[in-house]
């Protein structure tokens, strides 16, 4: 779906711009390239669904630690993020529950930041702000957790 939206935006932007004869050839090649990418969208979808199925199978295994469950669930949410945001949010909430069970402030911050990012990408800025306001400690966390927080904060403030 994002590929089609990107293609439409690119097409409208490029078709509105005046082009010299040399630029027309470049644009035609760009459009052919874009057509090839769109034609392969089914292949890209199949690959993504295969990754998602693989992660779900790994998550269903017995004997996983809370941290392993968190990592797999976070990866599932990332794979769903640009694909189906409602499922991404479902898995992000699960990451938060797992993070809270571990008591690890880093994981809690990453999970909350992921939820806030998902909310803001969907235009739910009030909810994103509510989640991010609940994060108090931005000093005693890892660089990765801090990066997640600032990406979510930046996206919300855009």
- Please tally the β strands and state the result: 0
| Mean pLDDT over the residues | 87
Structural class: mainly alpha
Order of helices and strands: HHHHHHHH
Q: Estimate the helix proportion, in percent.
A: over 70%
What does this structure look like?
Helices cover 81% and strands 0% of the residues. The chain is mainly α. The mean pLDDT is 87.
Q: How are the elements arranged and paired?
A:
Elements lengths: L1 H15 L4 H19 L1 H19 L6 H16 L3 H18 L2 H17 L3 H9 L9 H15 L1
Helix pairs in contact: 1-2, 3-4, 4-5, 5-6, 6-7, 6-8, 7-8
Characteristic key phrases:
158 residues, 81% helix
Provide a concise account of the structure shown.
The chain is an all-alpha fold and 158 residues long.
